[in-house]
Structure formats: C-alpha cells, structure tokens
Design a protein that fits this description.
248 residues; alpha/beta; two-stranded antiparallel ribbon; 9 helices
C-alpha cells in the first residue's frame, strides 16, 4: 500500500492541533508543539506542500519568523545537501524518519535545511545571542534567501513593519525566555523570564504581531526542556506563550 499520500502519524515528541487563528479572524490555524526543535522542518514541509497546492502557479516560499535564544543557523554539509534532495516532499513519514535519524541532535540545522530545499524563503530571527547580523544564502536551485538577525525587539519590530511578506511561518523556541543561559550547567542568576517579561515579547496587540499574524500559515513551538532548565520551566513558559496567542 502506498503511504506517501498521507501521514500515518506526526513525529514522536510532537503534538499538532488546530485552533482559532490568533489574528482574530474566523480562520483556523495549525499549531505544532515539538519537544525537539529540529522536527519543525517536518511541519514546515507539510504546510509548504499545502500552500504550493493552493497557490500554484503563483507560489513563493513563506518567510520564516523565528524567536530563539540560539541562532540555529548551522549550514548543512555537502553530504546532507545531497541527501535532502532525495527526499520526496509527498512522503512526510519518510521526511520525519530522516529528520530523526540524520539532523543534528543539537537542533541547530533545521532552518538552513529548509532554505536549501526552498521550503521557506527569507529568515527573520529575534535572538538572545550575538549582535545584529545579515546574510544571504542560496538554495539548490540558486534562489537567494536573506537572513536577518536581531537582538533588540524594537529593531525586530520596525523591520517586520517595513516588509510586505504575503505568507509566514511563525516559530518560537521557548529557551528564548531564559536568563543565565546554559545547557548542562547554568549561571548563578539562571531563571526563566517572568510572565510579564514573556508577555512583553509575545503580545498579539503589538504592531509586529498585528502585522505578522494575518499572514501566518502555521505556528511551531519548541519546548526544548534541556535548554530551558528542565521540563517544569519549559511548561510554565509554554503556558504563558500559548495563552498570549490563543486565549480569547
């Protein structure tokens, strides 16, 4: 039996649900919760397939807006690039298995893999590491993808308002909301953001969100408890973020 036309199940450690769109319209949107960030690639591929089918022949890949403590922009190796080109976009089960077996377990290479396959277009990153940066990379067809990185929310917001993206994927790694960053060890002042600090960044009433949300076609949220100081911190952050986007 050919299983390429449909997915038997979502990748392990992920949870997908359909909710009222946070832009306040009568639309619905899919939100994927991921224990490990690299599985966002699977959902971006799934949603890109859907967009391509609905918008052809005028399809262009959606911009990825991502909030993350880390840059998560490690480039794929030449070997990985060749293997990615062999993936069948319609075989989501195969893609999920490939991500699990071959993507870096440090969860920092999925974005550049998605740009290599032209699943996403430009990248806009709000981060807590390093300063403001800009770069351009090419995919396997020679299309250019611009990468914009911001450390300051106000700069990120001003930039978002200057753009005219038609379609977006919105991605959040919950470890953004952590002070005193670490992995297996943490600084003395390590703590998660307060609820008010989280709400100052994720707020549907902010101009950046008013601009982004009507264009957003899918939302991925990575829990990454290993980078949040444990599952309790991750879940507490998730509750605030989820309520900010979907409560009412």
């Amino acid at each position: 039996m050919d299983d390429k036309s449909s997915l038997i199940g979502n990748p392990p450690g992920t949870y997908l649900e359909t909710l009222p769109h946070p832009d306040g319209s009568d639309r619905a949107i899919e939100k994927a919760i991921l224990m490990e960030h690299r599985f966002a690639f699977f959902f971006w591929m799934k949603w890109a397939n859907r967009l391509r089918d609905s918008l052809a022949p005028n399809y262009s890949p959606p911009t990825l807006v991502t909030i993350d403590w880390h840059r998560d922009l490690a480039p794929p190796s030449d070997t990985l690039k060749e293997e990615l080109l062999k993936l069948d976009p319609s075989d989501l089960s195969g893609a999920a298995k490939y991500v699990w077996e071959n993507f870096e377990q440090t969860n920092d290479g999925h974005i550049r893999c998605a740009t290599w396959l032209n699943i996403v277009g430009d990248i806009i990153l709000l981060k807590n590491s390093a300063g403001e940066m800009q770069d351009t990379v090419s995919d396997h067809q020679g299309n250019e993808h611009n990468i914009y990185e911001f450390r300051e929310f106000d700069r990120f917001q001003d930039f978002m308002l200057s753009r005219n993206d038609q379609h977006l994927f919105f991605d959040i790694d919950l470890d953004y909301f952590v002070h005193g960053k670490g992995f297996q060890s943490y600084s003395d002042d390590f703590r998660r953001y307060s609820d008010d600090e989280i709400k100052a960044v994720v707020n549907c009433n902010l101009p950046a969100f008013q601009h982004m949300l009507p264009r957003t076609k899918g939302i991925t949220i990575a829990q990454e408890p290993g980078y949040c100081g444990g599952i309790r911190n991750s879940c507490q952050i998730l509750e605030v973020v989820h309520n900010q986007l979907f409560d009412g």
